[in-house]
Amino acid sequence: MIKDILCKKNIVAILIIYISFVFIQSLFFKYTASAETIHIFGILDAWAEDSFGISGLFLPPGIFNAYVIGTAELFASICLLTGLFSRFKIFIPVGALLALGIISGAICFHLFTPLGVNVLGDMGLLFILACGVWAAAVTLIVIHKDMALSFLKNRNR
User: Fold this and answer.
1) How many CB atoms neighbour CB 97 within 10 A?
2) Three-class SS of 81-122
3) Which distant-in-sequence residues (6+ apart) come within 8 Å of 54 by Cβ?
4) d(CA 79, CA 96)
5) Span 11-63, pLDDT tens digits
6) What are the distances in angstroms from CA 58 to CA 5, 43, 114, 147?
7) Mean pLDDT over residues 77-100, rounded?
8) What does the pLDDT average to over 94-122?
9) Could you give the CA distance from residue 121 to residue 113 in angstroms, rounded to a whole number?
């Protein structure tokens, strides 16, 4: 029974569902300009202005605003879910690479900016979820590395 649950196919499905759940549930906050989103992206924008003299980087229409990040997360989730529920399995490593890039940025902003790990008293929940997404994305990339490399080799011919 446990062996069946822990088969590669089920692990992949669980990892994809986890990443997609975290990304998709956050869309409500990003797309509705919730107080949490305004706080997070406001701190990041102030940090960018104070540190680099770049104002508006994290606020609309800046290139790293909540709508852009949310759309990237949605696209990564669509790729992962398409790979899971269709015959186009190549979308799994593509979505995992996108997720890894997005979430690596989020983790760095938590660790190396005034945003910090504890955001609005969440006791680090956003950071913990981000670390889980990072681990899940890396695992998916490792599991599907041969498929991705084979795809790239065939595309270059």
Assistant:
1) 17
2) HHHHHCCCCCHHHHHHHHHHHHHHHHHHHHHHCCCCCCCCCC
3) 48
4) 8
5) 999 999 999 999 999 999 999 999 999 999 999 999 999 999 999 999 999 99
6) 42, 9, 14, 35
7) 96
8) 97
9) 17
